[in-house]
């Protein structure tokens, strides 16, 4: 049976260094970490995790609570988090809150009972509005959703800037009636709404807004209702998320409307289907892999140094112009 001392000898480092690499704590160079992990793989070393937890009183499990696992954005973020956790010899307990505050609270309580080392959370608007760091017994990092006033480690997109740039692109395409369909149940949707409204205000135009549940079915129905109530088709429809965007495209086709000939289409999230439909869809892409990796690195840093200052990492979206907003 391979022991940790065997790994240390094979990698040419101390047992303490191997231990630091496996638990993801302490100062270890990237070259040393890669050498240790290569030795772990070569020797097929499997640490006695249960014994380690008993000795240290700590767990090697991280919690991840996402608001909707059906959303490809969270799927990609979760994958990046799991990749880093696996490389550090840690486990991820994944839960889906379904945008439900009660379900979210249930899973947060479960994380406490499981004594996880820390949690990455995409919070509901309800939790965010009453967030207090002292309410949680474990380190916590917020991902995707965070208010300016929230005192928590967080990794978010610059939603206001992203929505402004996406809306300005449509204004440059001579769109004047731009309908914005947004998820009203999250801080992300509200921030993107604010960016859209700011861009229209700059142009001296009125906003056309429609709050929806962030699902494909609800977005499709909301678009149908809008088109039935208004005689004039908007110049453009914009979605605040990928699932809403898919619902808008389905709804336009159901009503026999073509894009970009009859109406321009754009939205958030560079999901695979947006690249293969004809015409392909203009999107504001998010750096999902970077968001996931940064979130878990923030959490591991918080676990290692609980007293360090709060950190908020704000990332920039990439506007990808495609056929759905062609001139």
Automatic annotation (TrEMBL):
Protein name: LacI family DNA-binding transcriptional regulator
Coiled coil: none
Transmembrane segments: none
Source organism per UniProt: Uliginosibacterium sediminicola
Keyword Transcription (UniProt): yes
Top-rank taxon: Bacteria
Residue span, HTH lacI-type domain: 2-56
Keywords in alphabetical order: DNA-binding, Transcription, Transcription regulation
An MF annotation (GO) of this entry: DNA binding
Keyword Cell cycle among UniProt keywords: no
């Amino acid at each position: 049976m391979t022991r940790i001392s065997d790994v240390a000898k094979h990698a040419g480092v101390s047992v303490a260094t191997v231990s630091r690499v496996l638990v993801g704590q302490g100062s270890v160079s990237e070259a040393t970490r890669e050498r240790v992990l290569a030795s772990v793989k070569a020797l097929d070393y499997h640490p006695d995790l249960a014994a380690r937890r008993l000795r240290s009183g700590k767990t090697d499990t991280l919690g991840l609570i996402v608001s909707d696992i059906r959303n490809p954005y969270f799927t990609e973020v979760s994958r990046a988090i799991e990749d880093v956790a696996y490389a550090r010899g840690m486990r991820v307990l994944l839960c889906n809150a379904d945008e439900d505050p009660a379900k979210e609270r249930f899973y947060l309580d479960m994380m406490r009972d499981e004594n996880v080392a820390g949690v990455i959370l995409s919070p509901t608007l309800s939790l965010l509005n009453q967030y207090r760091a002292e309410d949680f017994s474990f380190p916590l990092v917020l991902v995707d959703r965070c208010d300016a006033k929230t005192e928590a480690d967080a990794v978010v997109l610059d939603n206001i800037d992203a929505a402004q740039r996406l809306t300005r692109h449509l204004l440059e395409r001579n769109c004047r009636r731009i309908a914005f369909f947004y998820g009203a149940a999250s801080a992300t949707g509200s921030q993107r709404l604010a960016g859209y409204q700011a861009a229209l205000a700059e142009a001296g135009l009125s906003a056309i807004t429609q709050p929806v549940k962030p699902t494909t079915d609800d977005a499709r129905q909301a678009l149908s209702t809008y088109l039935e109530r208004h005689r004039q088709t908007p110049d453009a429809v914009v979605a605040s998320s990928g699932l809403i965007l898919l619902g808008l495209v389905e709804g336009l086709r159901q009503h026999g409307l073509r894009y970009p000939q009859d109406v321009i289409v754009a939205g958030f999230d560079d999901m695979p289907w947006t690249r293969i439909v004809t015409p392909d869809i203009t999107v504001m892409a998010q750096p999902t892999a970077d968001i996931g990796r940064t979130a878990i690195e923030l959490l591991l840093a918080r676990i290692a140094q609980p007293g360090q200052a709060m950190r908020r990492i704000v990332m920039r979206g990439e506007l990808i112009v495609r056929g759905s907003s062609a001139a």
